[in-house]
């Protein structure tokens, strides 16, 4: 049996076909042009395979309330061509298979959750943060996505400011110094005038950012007590992960127990940004009666 | 059919017997003495009624992992007499009925959730904060309590400090200036040298506290998108609620949609601190095959 995955992003649509063991059979990407062009290419691509269902992890904002008239639309996206686009409806009409649609970060979250369990980790709950151009998060609690009226937007929480970072106003157009405004990729340019890739780990800005990320992970820990927290996205790296874990342990101060820190706060199990594709396959499979 | 409720607190055990419409048939409280004394009185009380199940909302910390050898114990409580007490086991042996045990704040959370739905509110998710001697929270997400490895401890999250409150170190013995350390009842004495009841609403400390509580509610909103947030506990009052709502709207800055603010951030529907009793009845009823 074959299922499809679309990782729908602002710059490209990554399409993949997989079997029911999550092996990638074929994949191809298409540059994100106008919806009418890109979605036609995507539909034509999947028509080459006999997929039984499709999982989509998409940029947004998405309307995900099943009972809403605009269920499955990309709504107020800053990508103007894609505003008010019936992503679900167009793909459903074009491919005529069951579709599981969720946010980009939820796709990655589910991929990491499924793979963690397949590799023998006994977890029922997992949080995934992506720290890149923006900051987003997804949460699985007892096997289900969190979020009643919408998906979580945990990138925009407030955190306690670092004493050596009080003057920085933050980059979030909505909130200034929310988490995203303090640790996303563009903050490197705003703080230091250069790109993050060029900032050495010895620069104290990494410690400041680790302090903020650690606070967000403490919020998540205290609220959900997840079995594991996965950190992905372009800003993450091994040295930064170390600093985050150190700050987390210090700030939590043993208040609640967590799994051993090296198993608890980790980078993705699935390499090469592949978490969302695996997640999409798994979510598509939930739509197929087996 | 009758069910029982115990609201087990550090100063008293409030016991009640209710019918399956949540009407209180009888109630009595017992001062919290040593476990052997208090639990015997509680058992003797309930033996006067033919209860079919019991709901308990208890102080803690509690061991609530069902597969744990010490499931149902009060564990490392600061109340030394109650440390390592098999609350669940003793009551189960004494009363021989099914028991639903949860935290004090979870009991209140469930009571508010059930009553909101019974009065016609179409919500599946609800967050409840108690702001009193301590700060705690419970969350129902799609009808289920949140928390895999334990119950939420959202009273201890970090928040962005108010510019006019930077010097206050906070009162939390674990974290200093976490939420509880900044807004719980004892912070009035620590900041102003007098009890909260005597501090007029015109004192700016209420605005500072509202700023912190509002941030916690934003965290909850962004993480869970609950249908409603209920604020209970001894520190709450109508004027404080107003300030919290104002700060919440200002800080969220329209980033995500919520229900109308006056329906979204509210004080308990169930009066006279009765939320936990109703919640216990409802949780007890889940243990009875109807």
TrEMBL record, chains A, B:
EC number annotated for this UniProt entry: 2.7.1.4
What keywords does the record list, in alphabetical order? Magnesium, Metal-binding, Zinc
Per the entry, which co-factors are needed?
Mg(2+)
Which InterPro entries does the UniProt record give? ATPase_NBD, Carb_Metab_Reg_Kinase/Isom, ROK
Does the keyword Translocase feature in the UniProt annotation? no
Catalytic activity, as annotated = D-fructose + ATP = D-fructose 6-phosphate + ADP + H(+)
For the keyword Zinc, the answer is yes
The record's similarity note reads: Belongs to the ROK (NagC/XylR) family.
Identify this protein by name.
fructokinase
Instruction: Name the source organism.
Output: Agrilactobacillus yilanensis
Q: What is the lineage of its organism?
A: Bacteria, Bacillati, Bacillota, Bacilli, Lactobacillales
């Amino acid at each position: 049996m074959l299922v499809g995955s679309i990782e729908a992003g602002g710059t490209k649509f990554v399409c993949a076909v997989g079997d029911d063991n999550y092996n990638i059979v074929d994949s191809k990407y298409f540059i994100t042009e106008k919806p009418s062009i890109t979605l036609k290419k995507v539909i034509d691509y999947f028509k080459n395979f006999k997929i039984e269902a499709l999982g989509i992890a998409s940029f947004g904002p998405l309307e995900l309330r099943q009972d809403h008239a605009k269920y499955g639309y990309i709504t107020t996206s800053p990508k103007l061509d894609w505003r008010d686009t019936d992503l679900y409806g167009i793909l459903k009409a074009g491919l005529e298979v069951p579709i599981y649609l969720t946010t980009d970060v939820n796709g990655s979250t589910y991929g990491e959750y499924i793979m963690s369990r397949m590799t023998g980790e006994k977890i029922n709950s997992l949080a995934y943060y992506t720290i890149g151009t923006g900051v987003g998060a997804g949460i699985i609690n007892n096997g289900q996505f969190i979020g009643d009226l919408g998906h979580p937007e945990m990138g925009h929480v407030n955190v306690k400011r670092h004493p050596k970072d009080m003057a920085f106003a933050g980059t979030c157009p909505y909130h200034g110094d929310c988490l995203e405004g303090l640790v996303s990729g563009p903050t490197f340019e705003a703080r230091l005038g250069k790109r993050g890739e060029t900032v050495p780990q010895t620069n104290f800005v990494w410690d400041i950012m680790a302090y903020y990320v650690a606070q967000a992970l403490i919020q998540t820990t205290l609220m959900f007590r997840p079995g594991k927290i996965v950190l992905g996205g372009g800003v993450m790296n091994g040295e930064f992960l170390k600093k985050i874990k150190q700050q987390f342990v210090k700030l939590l101060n043993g208040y609640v127990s967590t799994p051993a820190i090296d198993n608890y706060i980790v980078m993705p199990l699935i390499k090469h940004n592949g978490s969302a594709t695996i997640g999409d396959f798994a979510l598509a499979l939930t739509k197929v009666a087996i």
